[in-house]
Specification:
single chain; 24 strands; alpha/beta; FAD/NAD(P)-binding domain; five-stranded parallel sheet; 3 domains; globular
Length: 449
């Protein structure tokens, strides 16, 4: 069979690539090939441990995309031949005009002793694996989650609602070390502990201990041992690029598929989007290990729009790494670079920080303390990064600050930002946190200049 557009992979990047291609070029035939009959909403996976009734409530539907005229083939791709422009599965071969790799990522499993024991789990985007694993994990008495990135934190916070003894372990000196600086991360950790989660930081795992083939404990490099009858490895993900590499595509520094500004790969008529594609930092242009569903869908729209002609000129010069999450009683968001990363990369910086209540008056019952931290370049005043913790309004405030970073807004522009407020929705107009944090930085910039 032959299609104008073939997409390999059917999660966020694959589905949005196909949808965008069909909407942009309605006369073209589009096929999605994926091995999973059922696909999950990636960001909803942690909530299958408690908040959702089951992982069945996290299924990503494909009927709306089918109604657009996109076809689906549920088979695993075994080979791609770039020269003949063919994709091979176990039962079919499909010829294409344009090809999009949206093969995603898989959990990174460290070469640690005991990783293959019964009771050691990862968090893949695999419906059948998770349906079985979640039921078994929730029956455990002592659970250890290794890795305090956003997946590790979300899974841990969900599990402590179901299991009495859950311990989150991080090798670096704070939780969420890639997204937040230590001062903000310590407030997040305090809330997690208040909720009943055990947290161990600056602790490196030496091995996972087993008895009769099953997990019994976790041993650390400093000699400490804690009990565990279930261990979850949440140390990150790696791009799923073997198929692309075997096909001859150029693979970048961090193991992802090299792409240009329009998601075109090193081979003509072949694109890549999502976790399998290489991303570059907005400011440094260095290759990053960014893997977020929001970034994947951004990639997918750019790729899908530009398959047959460059319809959308990509103005963004890199990825901003906008991240948001929530645990019980606290939302958190980050965008751009952290203070630590900015200094490491050689920026001279100024920090603006402000804390307030996200309702006015502060006696309203659903109020939450909000902390905003903004990182600016010292001399230009350009916003480099932002971190927020607080109530649910954090989710949209970090998106505002992401746009501010993308448009290279300065402390002056943010300090004079025009905004709307309401007692039940926002902080008071006299102390709107983004503006107040920017004012704090602006005073330092003006003083130093």
């Amino acid at each position: 069979m032959k299609y104008d557009v073939v997409v390999i992979g059917g999660s966020a990047a694959g589905l949005i690539s196909a949808k965008t291609a069909k909407l942009s070029y309605p006369e073209k035939s589009v096929l999605v090939i994926r091995k999973e009959e059922i696909s999950l909403v990636p960001c909803g996976i942690p909530y299958g441990f408690s908040t959702l009734k089951s992982i069945d409530d996290d299924i990503m539907g494909i009927d709306p995309i089918k109604k657009l005229g996109v076809d689906f083939l549920i088979e695993e791709v075994t080979k791609v031949d770039i020269k003949s422009k063919k994709v091979f599965t176990s039962n079919n071969e499909v010829e294409y005009d344009k090809l999009i790799f949206a093969t995603g990522s898989t959990p990174f499993i460290p070469p640690i002793e005991g990783k293959d024991l019964d009771g050691v789990y990862t968090i893949p985007k695999d419906y059948y694996y998770l349906k079985d694993a979640i039921d078994k994990i929730k029956k455990a008495k002592d659970i250890v989650v290794i890795g305090a990135g956003f997946i590790g934190i979300e899974v841990s916070d969900e599990l402590r609602k179901e299991v009495d003894n859950v311990t989150l372990v991080e090798a670096l000196d704070c939780v969420l070390p890639l997204a937040f600086d230590r001062d903000i991360a310590e407030e997040i950790a305090a809330k997690l502990r208040e909720n009943g989660l055990n947290i161990m930081i600056s602790k490196r795992v030496k091995r996972i201990v087993g008895e009769n083939g099953k997990v019994s404990a976790v041993e650390f490099e400093d000699g400490e041992v804690i009990k565990a009858d279930a261990v979850i490895l949440s140390i990150g993900y790696k791009p799923n690029t073997k198929l692309a590499a075997d096909a001859g595509l150029l693979i970048g520094k961090n193991g992802a598929i090299w792409v240009d500004e329009y998601l075109r790969t090193s081979e003509k008529d072949v694109y890549a989007a999502g976790d399998c594609a290489e991303h570059k930092d907005f400011f440094t242009r260095r290759s990053t290990k960014l893997m977020l569903a929001s970034t994947a869908t951004f990639d997918a729209r750019v790729a899908g729009e530009n398959l047959f002609t460059l319809k959308v000129v990509r103005e963004s010069k890199g990825n901003i790494s906008i991240f948001s999450s929530a645990i019980e009683g606290l939302a958190m968001g980050a965008a751009g670079v952290t203070e630590h990363t900015a200094i490491k990369e050689g920026f001279e910086i100024v920090i603006g920080k402000f804390s307030t209540i996200d309702r006015h008056p502060g006696t309203l019952p659903d109020k939450t303390k909000t902390v905003v931290k903004l990182i600016f370049a010292k001399y230009s005043g350009v916003l480099l990064g932002a971190q927020i913790i607080g109530g649910k309004s954090v989710g949209e405030m970090i998106n505002i600050l992401g746009l501010a970073i993308q448009k290279t807004m300065t402390a002056t522009e943010l300090a004079t930002l025009q905004f709307g407020t309401h007692p039940l929705l926002t902080a008071a107009p006299t102390m709107y946190p983004i503006v107040s944090a920017a004012e704090s930085a602006l005073r330092q910039i003006c003083t130093k200049s």
